[in-house]
Amino acid sequence: MVSKENYVKVLFNFYSNVLGEQAVETMWAEVVDEGKGIYKLDSVPFYAPNVASGDTILATYNPDEEMLTYKETIAFSGNSTVQVVIIDKSVATNDVRDALHALGCVTEKFNEGYFVIDVPVELDYQLIRSKLEELVSTDTIDYAEPCLSEQHRD
Description:
Elements: E1 7-16, E2 21-33, E3 38-41, E4 56-62, E5 67-75, E6 80-86, H1 93-101, E7 106-111, E8 114-119, H2 125-137, E9 141-147
Antiparallel strand pairs: 1-2, 2-3, 3-4, 4-5, 6-8, 6-9, 7-8
């Protein structure tokens, strides 16, 4: 088991298409090589685009932010991140999450009505996308794919 001392918070600065503005998000990352600024992302991004859990990133200390700040992704994990908004307010967020868990996904709930899906590299994304499209067709949800790995593209 990895000790908590091997984890750090990393700040991500980005423009959010979901929020429509400049945004920041902090995520946990495992220290790979602190001297070289290399870390492995251990969080599912709620808003930050183009990153997924398990990605190896480069981060440096930013004195203005007073914390480690994301610079670039140096190795992609192959995992994908999908953002989901519940449109039909009569549907419980956890019910939709449960349906995706049954397909092998991990989800993280931000609040009632919004969550993210971590799609592991080994899953067939077409099964997940089919479920998402089924839910879109019934006006239950809408979704975005801010980080779709090569393995999960058509």
